[in-house]
Amino acid sequence: MPPSQKGAAFRKKDIAKAFFDLDITDSETSIASKTPKPRDRNRQIASRPPLDNAKSSNKVAFLTLPVEIRLRIYDLLVVSRFDRRENPSWAVGDTDQKMVLLDMGQFRQYRTMEPRILQTCRQIYDEANSILYSQNVFAICEPEHMFRLIAQIGPVNLKLVKKLDIWVPCMAEISSWIQLLNILAEKASGLRYIELAWGTNCDFPWPLQRGARERGLGDNLDFVRALGKIQGLEKLVISGYYAKNWPAYLERIGMRVRAICGHCHEEAELKEGDLNDEELENKKFIREINEKELQAFMRYQQGTEDLIP
Question: For residues 182 and 109, what is the distance between their CA atoms, to the nearest angstrom?
């Protein structure tokens, strides 16, 4: 993912327009400004049908629907979904849900959710707001992406965020990542799932030497200690290139960890006799990639045995 521009000034209104095309802060004034003003009961509204006619009409007001149906509608509107064939790497697992990529603007032609329903009224906001933040998976590759989201949604909504997908590029600066992890540990109390991958440069052998910047932050003690401060996670998936003792350390402090070696891909469990020629070729290709990843991963971990958090 391309890094975002450094030092660019931003405003809440601009972020809201680029990300959700609306302002969805947790401030009372923002919601009040979007809530319809009380109507003058003495003024007759011609567009509103008499009560008897409304009862006999086939039209159903949205808020009269059972809450289960309303929640399902909210889920369809505010949870990001797409055709996973467009880019499987953007999908959440094997589902049609798409990660909310914070480094990409949610422009109309690429929009995969419609959160403007939150602007309708206070009741709909209260019912749908938690779905927006708790059911989507927010993907970041730069700390400032998350900083901007936090500035936009506010601390109350940050507590509703449950799932993060984090990619740490090999040339990343440690200070901003430590700052972000500390904020998540302190303020993102609703976090339950994190998938985190460390990148490195495997094209040449020299970046794998200890101390090389291209080696990435996968063997940085301060990084893994800050990660360990995040409490309440039900699952932590780490992948990419990291020090040998990281999984054991994270499990020892109470985290449920799934550790993947390098960027290995899962192989289909089907027997070769059940696969056609194309599927067999694809399985062979994935196996070759995994073997190369495993070799690079083992080279990366050499010499990290002495790193004890």
Answer: 35
In this structure, the number of other CB atoms found within 10 A of the CB of residue 282 comes to 14
The single-letter code of the amino acid at 289 is I
The secondary structure of residue 304, as a DSSP letter, is -
Looking at 27-83, list the stretches that DSSP marks H as alpha helix, in order from N- to C-terminal side. 28-34, 51-56, 67-78
Cα–Cα–Cα angle for 251, 170, 289, nearest 5°?
Answer: 80
Q: What's the rounded Cα separation, in Å, for the pair 7 and 21?
A: 22
Task: Give Cα separations from 241 to 16, 41, 214, 251 (angstroms).
Answer: 35, 66, 12, 18
Whole-model pTM: value is 0.76
The 10 Å Cβ neighbour count of residue 1 is: 14
Rounded CA-CA distance 86/93 in Å is 14
Q: Decide if 139 contacts 100 (C-beta within 8 A).
A: yes
The one-digit pLDDT tens for each residue of the chain (309 residues) are 444 444 444 344 443 444 444 444 444 444 444 444 444 444 443 444 444 444 445 556 889 999 999 999 999 999 999 888 888 888 898 888 999 999 876 555 567 888 889 999 999 999 999 999 999 999 999 999 999 999 999 999 999 999 999 999 999 999 999 999 999 999 999 999 999 999 998 776 666 777 788 899 999 999 999 999 999 999 999 999 999 999 999 999 999 999 999 988 776 565 556 677 777 777 788 888 889 999 999 999 999 999 999
Give CA–CA dist 299/292, Å, rounded. 11
Place of tokens 């996973």: 84
Residue 135 CB: number of other CB atoms within 10 A? 17
Tokens, residue 132: 């927006």
Kindly state the tokens that stand for 74.
């909210």
Whether 153 contacts 26, CB under 8 Å: yes
CB atoms within 10 A of CB 217: 24
Q: Count how many residues are written for the chain.
A: 309
The residue to which tokens 């990843």 are assigned? 293
